[in-house]
Amino acid sequence: MEWMKAISVWQPWAQFIVLGWKTIETRTHDRFKSLVGQRIFIHAAGKIDNEDNWVRFLTSIQLYWMKLTLKCTPRLQPSLIGSAFVEDLRPLNKGDSEAALFDCSLPVPRLYGLILKNVYIFDKPIPWKGSQGIFKVEKRICRVCGCTDEDCSACIAATGEPCHWVEEDLCSRCALAREG
Ligand SMILES: [Zn+2]
Ligand SMILES: [Zn+2]
Questions:
Q1: Ligand 2 center to residue 154 CA distance, Å?
Q2: Which of 24, 134, 159, 176 could form a disulfide with 99 if both were Cys (CB 3.0 to 4.6 A apart)?
Q3: How many structural domains compose the chain?
Q4: How far is ligand 1, taken at its centre, from the CA of residue 170, in Å?
């Protein structure tokens, strides 16, 4: 099978992506162009960006929710935490700041954005080493819930039985949920 690719993102940005709060991942280069039209894994790097310049872009409800939930606590163990479809990669401008949770109005450095759609957050992070740039994930993982051949416990907890593969990267629980 064709292994899905992944990009590594510092926390809390990675978490914001899989929560669907950040739909544009910013870069100072356009080297990820090859990802356009593909679904990718979002890898949370074991690093935290301590600059909280995103605070002003979050709504008060999002900030409140962040404080309340553990899901938002940035994990320091590098992990795959979700997946997203890359719709486009293009230069960014001021109007993109809200979707990027980042000020895109400055002319320097030139910012490019991966425009992300149909994002899923995994039931459980999958510990994964990761690396810089684009890397391949050579493991069968459900693109929606993140269950694997080794760990299907979230499906069992939800349905009472283990799932099976319906597509290369889609388990039977998530296929059923999509139909229903
Ligand atoms: Zn699944
Ligand atoms: Zn499963």
A1: 6
A2: 24
A3: 2
A4: 6
Size of the chain in residues: 180
Q: Are residues 60 and 135 both part of a single domain?
A: yes
130 and 146 housed in the same domain:
no
- Give the model's pLDDT for residue 53: 77
Which residues are 116's β-sheet partners?
86
Show the low-confidence residues of the chain (pLDDT under 70).
69-75, 180
- Which domain covers residue 45, as residue numbers? 5-139
Pairing outcome for strands 134-136 and 79-91:
unpaired
pLDDT of residue 180: 63
> How far does residue 106's CA lie from ligand 1's centre (Å)?
40
Least distant ligand from the CA of 174: 1
Distance 124 CA to ligand 2 centre (A): 11
CB 112 within 8 A of CB 28: yes
List the shell of residues around ion ligand 2, using CB closer than 5 Å. 147, 152, 155, 163, 171
Strands 134-136 and 5-11 turn out to be: antiparallel
What pTM does this model have? 0.91
